[in-house]
Amino acid sequence: MTPLPALSPRRRRTDLLARAVLATFTAVALIPLVLIVYYLLHKGLPAISGHFFSSDPTGNFLGDAGGIKSAILGTLELVALATAMAVPIGIGVALYLVEYGRDNLFGNAVRYFVDVLTGVPSIVFGLFIYVTLVVSGALGSSFAGWKGSAALALLMLPVVTRSAEVVLLLVPDSLREAALALGSPRWRVVFRIVLPTALPGLVTGALLAVARAAGETAPLLFTATLVNGTTFNPGDKMNSLPAQIFSDVGQAQNRLVTRAWGAALTLVLMILILTLIARTLARRSRIT
Amino acid sequence: MEAGALATRDVPPSIGGASRARHGDQALRVILMGLAGLILALIVFFLIFLVLKAHPAFARFGVFGFTFDNNWDVAHAIYGALPLLVGTLITSAIALIIGVPVAVATALYLTELCPRRARGPLTVLVELLAAVPSVVYGLWGVFVLIPNLKPAEQWFADTFSFIPFIGGGKVAGPNYFIAGLILAIMILPIVSAISREVTATVPSEDKEAALALGATRWEMIRMAVLPYARPGIVGGAMLGLGRAIGETIAVTLVIGNQPQIGKHLFDQGYTLAAVIANEFGEAANDKLHTGALIAAGLVLFVLTLVVNAIARAIVRRGQHGRRPVPAQATAVAVQ
Lengths: 288, 335
Prior knowledge:
The complex is a heterodimer of chains A (288) and B (335). Chain A has 288 residues and is mainly alpha-helical. Chain A has helices at residues 9-44, 50-54, 69-99, 105-118, 122-134, 145-170, 173-181, 186-214, 241-251, 254-284. Helices cover 71% and strands 0% of the residues of chain A. In chain A, helix 4 crosses helix 6 (145-170). The model of chain A has no long low-confidence stretch (mean pLDDT 86).
């Protein structure tokens, strides 16, 4: 056999050029991240102080603008309530799909509609909650924190369901069969074998859904809306970090814009921590 | 094996135990099925309800008239959504044109060229972009991108003024291009993640065969990796498009919110999602206006539905005869 011809200069040049282009594009992809982190720290850090976290927005036109206490607490409440609504239902539906509905008509219909829900823009969920719950004044108030949570829950539901389904499918069938063969009833197999095995993956999926919901503004604008004060009553209007930032940007006053940067830095840090916890858990998981 | 050995340990031996187990099984099945049925009913209700509420607008202007009339005039209660639809399509197109090449190049670099030690950290950094909320992109766009990019945009518009739609005009602060650029950054992590998952499924035999035949790295990527991964990459780009179409808050802050079809790339406009976010507060007591906004939401919904359906079909058809894309890729896709 004759040895291969040496690499022609043209091919070598093309190769080097293509590699350089790919590397450059990767560097370009990182530029926005660097810029966003830089500006968040540069403009957000000066806003942050003890007062910033411990006081509510004052709403005064002049003077002290106040902090973001109600926005932080509101976001935590809204998201916690949304999680309490979306996660049990989402995991339940995923359990049905994996344990009973792998390939029947009903299961496939549910799977299809959950996929449809995945693609719905978040503003449309806000719209839906607005026309069903807010306009009708359900449970005695028009705008209310729990209605914002319901909109966020609708947004989280398909994410939780799909990620839980993927994780539950990864539980080996041999484990289920072993338990069934030992005479264990199905419900026990589900609660003692399937769910514990899949737990880290389920938590990861739920946390990623929470992280996504925490940053959403659109569904909250006309459900939980915007107030200054802190409230722990889910029947009242509730403030949230994204809504606060959105409103402050619209005001175009320097002190409000500074507060918006500080609130943005806080929000990004909260989401980052959630995402990191989710990823660490995912790496620890025994399956996948 | 002796039957007794099995029966003594975990197996409930009594008939009573078995019947209790049967009740438990039935209860579980009914509860889970009820939850699944609830979701199904909720989604069907969701769709029917939106159509009913949008009816005043559709009845007044017709479905076709509402969607394609170029006149959105709240003061005169005339609602034709064409300027919004065009705005949504232009900004999403810009997002794809800028975002997809960068995302795919990043994915190829990370899977095929990058030194092994840098791969993990770089991947995490690209994915961090997904952790930044929409409103923060908007804030950044308003106070950083718009003022800093304006001179460059004006230079670009002047230099390439001979190209229709791009040049000639005066650059507005908030405009289509800024909105498209921010959307490009926002879809980058998802398109890149899916492309990476798909390129990772290319069989190493194919790649090694190309290299053994004397191909350079780039030729290996072009001849072995890209043809195999193309359907997955196209599908990922379509999912990114679906994301871009529905994005609301970041776009609302940087599009200018003018219900007109912009004359050029750097002109102000509006999108379907942005109009809903802005006008909902004032529309509360006006059935026609509310209906028009919900109708805009439906148009948006149908648009994303079609795009996502095409994306899934492409990804699925692409898998025919190939290795399945790992489950994580699908999980990423739904986030």
